[in-house]
Amino acid sequence: MIQDELEIIIKLINSYMKARIISLVNHKGGVGKTTSAVNIGAGLNRLGKKVLLVDLDSQANLTDHLGIDTELDETIYGAMKGHHPLPVVTVKDGLDVVPSTLDLAAAEIELSTKIGRENILRKLLAPVAGRYDFVLIDCPPSLGLLTVNSLAASDMAIIVAEPGKFSTMGMKRLIEIFETVREAINNNLKDYKILVTKYDSRKSLPKQFTEFVQETYRGKVYQTAIRATVALGDAQMQGKCIFDTDVKSRGAEDYLALSREIIDDKWKF
Fold it and tell me: 83-88 long-range CB contacts below 8 Å, 24 or more apart?
């Protein structure tokens, strides 16, 4: 009995010490995925966690959002092509970024015939992930090779969804991809959670959508919904996170609360 309890304690300690690698996914653009990646990362950092943000989107919006040059010599694209190790750019103490570039758009085709193509990102992250408490991967708005690479490297996924009919329809497909990757490629992909963004309590659709996903995917939806606010757009325009532009805004309040939920979830794996 004591031995069993010790094994459980050791497992929990090892789990907590290991970096939690999380994919932020949705094959639909404009849902707040990149905004969430940036501000969850900043929120976790604000709570004392070391965070690595990986921009896996060829639009390089996360890279640009944080004021990093999108035409650096070393980016995620070159690393995936095998030209250099994973490049890491420091934004602030405890918050680093792997930058992207528009060239990444070619990766889907260029890497399609490479042996072990689904595990390229996992191998690149292996030498550096241990430096961090959390690694957040901002996936492209597609379900192609790059998104599969992200899920193959991750412990869990956050499905970012804005209220609407098409979000409801697409969620089922996203979960199917999640299950396929877990069964065929990455047994360590433990779980997914749904994050509702652009929530407005004054409108009926967001309330109905949130109630629907909470009922349909019981236990898989974050308690914190990200409320619609112009402050988040303003922060993006300034190339900063919400905590550096308007720390008292609803956006900052929501992302900090969400970050606490994500930290608490780390004990459950």
Answer: 85/124, 85/127, 86/124, 86/125, 86/127, 86/128, 88/52, 88/128
